[in-house]
Write a structure and sequence with these properties.
Blueprint: E1 2-8, E2 12-18, E3 24-31, H1 36-51, E4 58-64, E5 76-77, H2 80-91, E6 97-101, E7 106-111, E8 117-122, H3 131-140, H4 148-152, H5 166-178, H6 183-202, E9 211-214, H7 221-231, H8 244-270
Parallel strand pairs: 1-4, 4-5, 6-9
Antiparallel strand pairs: 1-2, 2-3, 6-7, 7-8
The protein binds adenosine-5'-diphosphate.
The site of adenosine-5'-diphosphate has 20 residues, from helix 3.
Length: 272
Amino acid sequence: MMTAGIDIGSATTKAVVLGDEGILLGYAVKPTGGNNRKTAETVLEEALGNARVGRDGVQQIVTTGYGRENIPFANRHITEITCHAMGVHSFFPEARTILDIGGQDTKGIQIDAEGKVLDFVMNDKCAAGTGRFLDVMAHALGMKVEDLATVSLQATSQIKISSMCTVFAESEVVSLVAKGVPTPDIVRGIHQAVAERSIILLKKLRFAQPIAMSGGVANNKGLVSSLEEKLETTLKISEHPQIMGAFGAAVLAQKSARTLRSKSQQRDAERP
Ligand code: ADP
């Protein structure tokens, strides 16, 4: 049985194609842009192409993320909190807390042994501590966000970034550069500030170990290192943390396709 999950996030759209027993057949990630429906269509086609399968074989499509309701070809849409929980649970069944940092929001999610959501918290509407915050800081330093990790690991001293407002933090970074503070120290300071803010959010939950991390920002090993140092634990992160929501959506699509199939088999069996 083949299913697909599509996560239409504020920054990127992700599609995952799963085969029997939840095997990952293919996936794709693209910037969301201004047309959710078109991007979802393109990303799904790319994921199907990477999986080398046709769309005809896909039995259920579940969408998630902020743009989930705008996709007419989906069978169901489910919140990203439920989908991230299911995606992370599929990789790390032992995880009880998830820190999900995406383009515009940070979430703490508490889950049970079945991957069901027990409680969750979200950042307020501002971009502080999210992927967008890191994107703006990288831009202020004239760097790509993908390079923040490598640069921060070269830091030799501690710099404190005192402002978490994206606009004020950006000018703080610009003035640190002007004072000649080495870039690796500034980047490390940025990661420490984002880690502290994420932990404040997690503390609003009665969070339990083990803790997993999902979302595109989990690709940033410099931030992960700051979080692990402050939490005094190793975070559970899959090889593809950015597609955890889409993966969870595809797993939930498998579950509902299975339920539909067994209902139709039951109806056939009851027919005189
Ligand atoms: P959303 O689901 O909200 O659209 P994502 O989970 O796709 O967001 O995360 C997007 C963010 O992930 C970007 O803003 C960027 O900061 C970060 N990101 C993605 N890939 C990387 C990477 N390789 N290194 C560092 N940061 C990354």
